[in-house]
UniProtKB/TrEMBL annotation:
<feature type="domain" description="PDEase">
    <location>
        <begin position="14"/>
        <end position="319"/>
    </location>
</feature>
<feature type="region of interest" description="Disordered">
    <location>
        <begin position="1"/>
        <end position="21"/>
    </location>
</feature>
<feature type="binding site">
    <location>
        <position position="89"/>
    </location>
    <ligand>
        <name>Zn(2+) 1</name>
    </ligand>
</feature>
<feature type="active site" description="Proton donor">
    <location>
        <position position="85"/>
    </location>
</feature>
<dbReference type="InterPro" id="IPR003607">
    <property type="entry name" value="HD/PDEase_dom"/>
</dbReference>
<dbReference type="GO" id="GO:0004114">
    <property type="term" value="F:3',5'-cyclic-nucleotide phosphodiesterase activity"/>
</dbReference>
<feature type="compositionally biased region" description="Low complexity">
    <location>
        <begin position="1"/>
        <end position="16"/>
    </location>
</feature>
<keyword id="KW-0479">Metal-binding</keyword>
<dbReference type="Pfam" id="PF00233">
    <property type="entry name" value="PDEase_I"/>
</dbReference>
<dbReference type="GO" id="GO:0007165">
    <property type="term" value="P:signal transduction"/>
</dbReference>
<keyword id="KW-0378">Hydrolase</keyword>
<feature type="binding site">
    <location>
        <position position="124"/>
    </location>
    <ligand>
        <name>Zn(2+) 1</name>
    </ligand>
</feature>
<dbReference type="InterPro" id="IPR023088">
    <property type="entry name" value="PDEase"/>
</dbReference>
<feature type="binding site">
    <location>
        <position position="234"/>
    </location>
    <ligand>
        <name>Zn(2+) 1</name>
    </ligand>
</feature>
<dbReference type="InterPro" id="IPR002073">
    <property type="entry name" value="PDEase_catalytic_dom"/>
</dbReference>
<dbReference type="InterPro" id="IPR023174">
    <property type="entry name" value="PDEase_CS"/>
</dbReference>
<dbReference type="InterPro" id="IPR036971">
    <property type="entry name" value="PDEase_catalytic_dom_sf"/>
</dbReference>
Length: 319
């Protein structure tokens, strides 16, 4: 309909997101150290709903809050009860991404891209069974075969997420085809960007931006930045207060140990850091991860986007 299309264009134009701060109270209220563990499913659903609605999802997609709630109700059961890659993790990534998007200067991002980014955050690990890409590749699993050993899990999450969004009546039905494609392309880029295989390439891009170089990547700049935000949010583990970080690290160690048990049964190789157990190994592993992965990443991010220093990421990492 002509009328509804006009409304969509108005709602999704590239007018920037200058007014977003007035709507993001829930994220601020929860604070950077928000801990999603031990929240009831009802509480998590309410938090996800507020965060998505306050990030323009209902407005841009022209859907009601009730419809969005129904969608979240379909997303939550698609997450498994693995110790780490579960709905609590996805909620934390969504919250962290919203906080980062709020504090970083991403004024060239339009509302369709912003909506694609927040939807990717809540969908980015959907269907995760607590097994890594390496496991799928080594065991020649049907998923590894399907995705030809390339970003096996990330391709799965992007596909499942897209399917859920397009399931009739599609959440994207009020967008015109170009608008729908923009949301889905952003979603796809952001989810694929959570594959650690692209970590170095993404860090190089941030370093270039930090050094004042003009962005020359293949994908649009806005999508590349949103992808970096989702990857940063996915690495939240060591950026929270010590107690919250420890709880998540313990859960990840449990998930790794469970995978190692399966690998032993199937006589598949295991990575040494996934075999380790106990608090000392946990602490050693975290220090190594901070030193070689997350600290250089956040330093590159802070060079490209100094505003990120308003969040206690680096402070928390060093305590
Ligand atoms: Zn994740």
């Amino acid at each position: 309909m002509e009328g509804s299309h006009a409304t969509t264009t108005e709602a999704t134009g590239a007018e920037g997101l200058q007014n977003k701060t007035a709507h993001q109270d829930r994220a601020e209220e929860l604070g950077w150290d928000f801990n999603a563990i031990d929240r009831s499913p009802e509480e998590l659903c309410g938090i996800i709903l507020d965060l998505l609605e306050q990030n323009h999802v209902c407005e841009v997609l022209q859907i009601s809050r009730e419809e969005l709630e129904g969608f979240i109700g379909r997303v939550i059961p698609r997450y498994n009860t693995t110790t780490f890659h579960n709905i609590c993790h996805a909620t934390t990534v969504l919250h962290s991404a919203v906080m980062l998007a709020k504090h970083l200067d991403i004024s060239s991002v339009n509302r369709l891209q912003h909506v694609g980014m927040v939807l990717s955050a809540i969908l980015h690990d959907i269907g995760h069974e607590g097994l890594t890409n390496n496991f799928h590749i080594n065991s020649k699993s049907p998923l590894a075969v399907k995705y030809e050993n390339q970003s096996v899990l990330e391709n799965l999450h992007a596909e499942l997420g897209t399917e859920l969004l397009l399931e009739e009546p599609s959440l994207l039905r009020n967008l015109d085809p170009d608008e729908r494609d923009e949301v889905l392309a952003t979603l796809h880029t952001c989810i694929l960007g959570t594959d650690m295989a692209f970590h170095k390439a993404q860090m190089d891009m941030l370093k270039d931006l930090g050094a004042g170089k003009i962005y020359e990547g293949e994908e649009p700049y806005e999508r590349a930045i949103l992808k970096a935000i989702i990857h940063t949010a996915d690495l939240y583990n060591v950026t929270k207060t010590f107690e919250v970080s420890k709880a998540w690290a313990t859960r990840l160690q449990c998930e790794f140990n469970a995978q190692v048990a399966i690998e032993k049964k199937l006589e598949l190789p295991s990575l040494p850091f996934m075999e380790s157990s106990g608090l000392v190994a946990l602490a050693k592993g975290e220090i190594g991860f901070i030193t070689f992965v997350t600290k250089p990443w956040y330093e590159a991010l802070a060079q490209a986007f100094p505003e990120v220093n308003k969040l206690p990421l680096l402070d928390n990492m060093s305590t």
